[in-house]
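Our preliminary data section would be incomplete without showing what the modeling component actually yields. Below, a chain of 222 amino acids is followed by its predicted structure, encoded as tokens that our downstream tools consume directly.
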Amino acid sequence: MKRGLFITLEGLDGSGKTTQIRRLATWLEKRGLEPTITRQPGGTVIGDRIREILLDSRSTGLASMTEMALMFGDRAQAIAEVIQPALEAGKIVVCDRFTDSTEAYQGGGRGLGSKTVLDLHRLICGNLQPDLTLLLLPSFDASLARARRRNTRDEAQTGKNENRFEQEQDAFHRRVWEKYREIAAREPERVVLIEGDLSIDEIHEQIVEAVAERLVLAEQNG
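Predicted structure:
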């Protein structure tokens, strides 16, 4: 059995990843492809517990290295429990965030640098790389404002507080945004950059075009 296809979606909170993952999943299912959908942090029982620590704004005083270590602990569990088994079974895995997020948020936002993140990725994650990364980068101000509104609304509706990163200063998020652009420039074969304040339909069209192309390549190489 050939290996499955590993697709990740990246971007600032508020970039529309959740909506686009739902639409991509529907598009794949209509073609008889049953994707495995997961997220980071989270996606496993242990990962969801780690997520609560990482995203809850009450987790004050969390050192940057501790934060990054927790991200990789969550990722290692997700790879072992969800991602690797699905890929070995020949499935398509669609993951909301992967190591690019750690490079952007901890490497860029926290100033820990790309080298530290990538070294840990090789060590802890066996250097597992996505086959395709869809990077959503709407305008900086629009995505950040949307994320802050959404988290305030979600907290009111569910009681869950996942605002810790959104409470950072704009300069932090600007560093994250710039690091994402750096990653896209460094790895154009893997990363498809979808930028600008596009409509949901326009973004979806670019996503399915990129995914369809990779599916054809995977079939040809399989």
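The CA atoms of residues 90 and 103 lie 28 Å apart. The first strand starts at residue 5 and ends at 10. Preliminary results of this kind motivate Aim 1 of the renewal.
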